[in-house]
Amino acid sequence: MTPPTTRTWSRRGRTPVVRVRGRSRRRLSVAALACYKPGESSRLIYRPCPDARPDGRKSFSWKDYRDLIQAAHQQLGGPIVLVWDNLNTHLAAGMRRYIADRDWLTVYQLPPYAPDLNPVEGIWSVVRRTTAANRAFADPHDLITAVRQGLRRLQYRHDVLDGCLTGTGLAPAPP
């Protein structure tokens, strides 16, 4: 809920000020997959998860990631090679069993502390610099709406998705 700041402009001698009513510990977790298939446009598949959940959990569980991977498999219609970071939820025993039981799913772990190899980190950077920059959110619903709109816009910006994938070296440069 704390707004990220970016560059802006104003008249010379007048510093722009973004007023924030108060700090909040509310947050929004979002899981995303940047997908690449040779000969097709890049795709972005995502799921938001507000911190006010019925079970009291404030972040994604391994079952939430399982459901995202299953949805991606249905949308993409083929085998998936998943490259992800070492988040503890990705390494949970239930997730390891799920991966082992799926012949269409191959998983590679990124080395620890390697955000430059994760294309989704580039997507979060774009969202922070565009959709969320210089904006004070009134409530969690406003934040969720803004992030969804920003990610939805990115889904149609295949050039940006290609840039995030190519920047990691995980996908060849587009022709």
How many structural domains in the coordinates? 1
Q: Shape from CA axes?
A: globular
CATH topology descriptor: Nucleotidyltransferase, domain 5
The CATH homologous superfamily corresponds to: Ribonuclease H-like superfamily/Ribonuclease H
- Termini gap: 40 Å
The helix count comes to 5
The share of residues in extended strands comes to 5-15%
CATH class: Alpha Beta
Low-pLDDT stretches are: none
Q: Helix- and strand-based class?
A: alpha+beta
Which sheet architecture does the biggest sheet show? 2 strands, antiparallel
Overall mean pLDDT? 82
Helix content: 25-40%
Q: Would you give an account of this structure?
A:
- The protein is an alpha+beta fold.
- It has one domain: Nucleotidyltransferase, domain 5.
- The protein contains five helices and four strands.
- A two-stranded antiparallel sheet has the order 1-2. Strands 3-4 form a two-stranded parallel ribbon.
- Helix 3 packs across helix 5.
- The longest helix is centred in the last third of the chain and has 16 residues.
- It starts with 27 loop residues before the first strand and ends in a 7-residue tail after the last helix.
- The mean pLDDT is 82.
- Keywords: Endonuclease, Hydrolase, Nuclease.
- This is DDE endonuclease.
